[in-house]
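Two proteins were folded this term; both appear here.
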Amino acid sequence: MLILLIGAIVVVMGLVLFWSEPLGVLGVLERMTPNIVYRVRTELPLVALSFDDGPHPEFTPQVLEILKQHEAKATFFLIGERALRYPEVVARIRAEGHEIGNHYFKNAATLGHSDEEFLGNLEKTENAIGAGGRLELFRPPGGVAWPRQIQLARERGYTCALGCAYPHDPMRPPVWYIRWLIEKNLAPGTIVILHDGIANPKRSIAALPDILAEGRKKGLRFVSIGELRRSGGVAAGRVALSG
């Protein structure tokens, strides 16, 4: 009975941490995974926005329009095969001054891939985006990759970036939760993760204007991850999750 009780407590605590993402646990995560960026140590009033799984012909333009209205910048982690399908959306992301990151060629786990396959998927995505090898940020699909794969990406010039304000929007939580989770974690150096390329990101898009407005109330400016990193000089650590 005691073992069952302990097990239940552990499960409940795990769920609380999963859904509340307290910034206080970041230090532990950063020490455990030093090669992944979760936030940036900075005293400047900057927060990084990021969007995963695009480009999407309907939803990415909606996100871009909201960002333009709020004078915000972001990093878009693009899937290579989708970039090939929608080059006009990729071009618009660039033209409007946003950053592009590598989110692998397909929206599938990297864990079963050999070193050669892994590097091949990074390169195919670079070619699809038209980057010429100049991308700086990599975010593995689902936020998960082997340490060896993270090292291979680093050797290719990438920094692996996750985040510390991620409302698990692929699981379709309510709009109020998306707003609450992100807004409570808005602080200088925070990296926000949302999705524009999932099947239905309408809740995230609905929450975005209020998130941007709340950031402004706190005196924060929303920028790309690259700009945030340049402001802090040294990246702080990692973990959070992604997708």
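Next, the second protein.
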Amino acid sequence: MKTHMTVLAGLLLTSVVLSPTVSSEEQNARATQLISASSMLAGLAPGALFPFVDTTPDGIVRAHIAITDAAAHCGPGAAAPANIVVLAGEAGGTLVSVMTAATNTGIGSEVQCVFHVTIKAGQGGLPAHVTDIVVVNANNSKALTGINTVTASADVR
């Protein structure tokens, strides 16, 4: 019996010693969840807000957002979206506009142009804790149409 206990203790000690250690960076990566969402924005009323992504109380570490909208000129960095404003930040706190002329990819035409942006919490004027991505119909006279879309993927922790 004593021999069995010695062997069992030896195996247990060996498994603890040989088990891989995990860095805090790896632990954080494991705790991060990837989310993805897409939506047609047809019918979003003039001036209306659409809380597209809300991860409260968890924070968005990094997100990639793409929209389609009309533009005065569809060319890389040429013009901002004509009808859509995308805000990112924390509800009840700071929300920052993240779709500018710099996000114009030049893919498409003036009728339907693709805009892309990658945001990171605490950078580019964003607060350190980001929980929300909000789409706003900035056109105060007409609803958005079927050419207007939004897609986002985000690392949430």
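Strands lie at 33-40, 49-54, 60-69, 84-89, 95-97, 104-108, 113-120, 132-137, 149-156. Residues 33 and 110 are 36 Å apart (CA to CA). These notes refer to the second protein only.
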